[in-house]
Amino acid sequence: MNINKILKSWKYPFILLAGIGISNVGAWVYLLALNLIVFEQTGSPLAVAGLYILIPLATIVTNFWSGSLIDRLNKRSLMVVLDLFRALCIFSLPWVLDASIWLLYMIVFLINMATSMFNPTSMSYITRLIPAEQRKRFNSLRSLMDSGAFLIGPAIAGVLFMMGDPVLAILINAGALFLSGIITLLMPNLEKQTSSIGREEWSWRLIRSDFNTVMAFSVIMCTS
């Protein structure tokens, strides 16, 4: 097969993989740095454990309403906004470390909520972007990047800890998420040409309707 044709067909998947890889490596650096900072500030393993409790809690709080937004908003734009929002929140962490542990928890909770929204949004976008015949290879490459981030992220965090304060690692992760958002802007706007005919305008009434649908389905699943 023509090399130029292969490169052209994989142009956007490779850009997307680059953004995902940068974000995943940064997430590991951020997590380890935040654990170390909280332990240094409080001296309590329980305070560190609280950071891990916030992850599933944010998922529970977010999942029952976020789907309504994800289905009806532009996926690429939402991914960019969520990346930049997380970058801004992480960038603010060094300035609240000495203020209050509860304020720190609140910001981390918001970051985890954004992450909980980002994952299904990116999955929906990837399904639209990647042709069916390329998905197996793309998923394999993404799994490789996820596994690589598990090794590279902690290694980079360790180097940064030796070079300076853990706060530096926090700031670098904020920069990584900002870069990921910029990379996402280079991706095609797949919904730009989508017709709005038949779409119901987004409103609080629509969110309530979606919420009632989700709750009814959950009740049926729990009682079946």
From TrEMBL:
Signal peptide range in chain numbering: none
Compartmental location: Cell membrane
PROSITE patterns in the cross-refs: MFS
Transmembrane segments: 12-39, 45-65, 77-96, 102-120, 141-161, 167-187
Residues annotated as domain Major facilitator superfamily (MFS) profile: 12-224
Main location: membrane
A GO cellular component entry from the record: plasma membrane
Keywords: Cell membrane, Membrane, Transmembrane, Transmembrane helix, Transport
Membrane topology: Multi-pass membrane protein
InterPro entries assigned: MFS, MFS_dom, MFS_trans_sf
Identification of the protein by name: Major facilitator superfamily (MFS) profile domain-containing protein
Species this chain originates from: Halalkalibacter wakoensis JCM 9140
Record lineage: Bacteria, Bacillati, Bacillota, Bacilli, Bacillales
